[in-house]
Batch of 2 targets.
Target 1
Amino acid sequence: MITLLEARNIGKRFGGLQALSDVSLTIRKGEVYGLIGPNGAGKTTFFNVLTGAYTPDGGEFVFNGAVLPSGKPHLVVAQGVARTFQNIRLFRELTALENVMAGHHIRTSAGVWGILTQNKHTVEEERLTTERAYELLRYVGIERFATATAKNLSYGDQRRLEIARALATEPQLLALDEPAAGMNATETVHLKALIEQIRGDGITVLLIEHDVKLVMGLCDRVAVLDFGRKIAEDVPAEVQKNEAVIGAYLGGGQKHAH
Ligand SMILES: Nc1ncnc2c1ncn2[C@@H]1O[C@H](COP(=O)(O)OP(=O)(O)OP(=O)(O)O)[C@@H](O)[C@H]1O
């Protein structure tokens, strides 16, 4: 099995709070890898460090054999790591199509000059970007809303749009931060199918999710964080039996608070 991402001893501190302590894990190419744990365990912080929003205090990420730049989100996206956010972050006043096109622009070469002069290369590139954006809206099942303003889409559709925008950056690793949050049961079933489709198309998925049923039904392997430390990493069936995990998270009595 080929390793896609290796987190090596990642540490992150906020003032007196150690949000991540020495977190190491390995994600293999083609798997859906779950990251679970109680509120405040450090899951989103892990995403933020991985995707360059925060600089770690210790450790590094190795992606495709090379160390990922830290604290530089645009370079991390360019390396092939895309993400969605727990609190949806779309360009709310733009259309669904424009949101996806914005994601694809990291892969296009036209500079400001090309856009201003509308040279042949830029016009052709823009045509391909539009075509690809429509394709991705179809892929996530919301093509009919292409010209709708993002803020007017339903919550579930906004989450799908975020996924389409992330996919437009042509990632090898797609990191989804609580994609099922706020979704009803039907939307969650569709989301599961979409993530399976994404994996089927060769994109590795890292998933933070509180819907335990979804995580256990979807993930090949799961890591559990508690107070910033990894307390387990295994296949779902084993994680569900793990005493430490049951105590910290799966037992129902969550001991953390926001
Ligand atoms: N920018 C920040 N400044 C200070 N503290 C922060 C910051 N970001 C996160 N924290 C703290 O770090 C800890 C880990 O938070 P994080 O959001 O990573 O947890 P989480 O596992 O994603 O939780 P949830 O499931 O509630 O989203 C929390 O105690 C949180 O309050």
Note: The CA atoms of residues 109 and 122 lie 8 Å apart.
Target 2
Amino acid sequence: MRDTLNRLEKVIAERRGATADTSYVASLFAKGREKIAQKLGEEATETVIASLSGDPAKLTAEAADLLFHLLVLLAEGGVSVDDVLAELDRRDGLSGIAEKASRTE
Ligand SMILES: N=c1c2ncn([C@@H]3O[C@H](COP(=O)(O)OP(=O)(O)OP(=O)(O)O)[C@@H](O)[C@H]3O)c2ncn1[C@@H]1O[C@H](COP(=O)(O)O)[C@@H](O)[C@H]1O
């Protein structure tokens, strides 16, 4: 998975400067952070709907759209795939229940 995400991250960075007419990635960057974030929200909703349909193929396709748009939003925000994976690695072994209980607020 890491290889695939890193490869796609590289493609997204390369396509960032392309012409919006010929590159979907470039067209997203041209629309700006708000639009990219909105698109990610739409893809998240479509993923939820697909999960409820009980069709694994639909869920797979929507999850791929979701991950792709997340990578574009991360690139726009200056966050790398390695940053996110390192954060997940940091949490390895820390139960979500224990983490929530340790919060002061
Ligand atoms: N992985 C993807 C990828 N996944 C999804 N999409 C596009 O994401 C869009 C989302 O589809 P939707 O139906 O939800 O949206 P839409 O109706 O087309 O768009 P809206 O008008 O609703 O915004 C579609 O146009 C898909 O083709 C992707 N577009 C590009 N990539 C990767 O990015 C690379 C560079 O793409 P270009 O920048 O287009 O060259 C490609 O080689 C791929 O590796």
Note: The chain is about 75% helix and 0% strand.
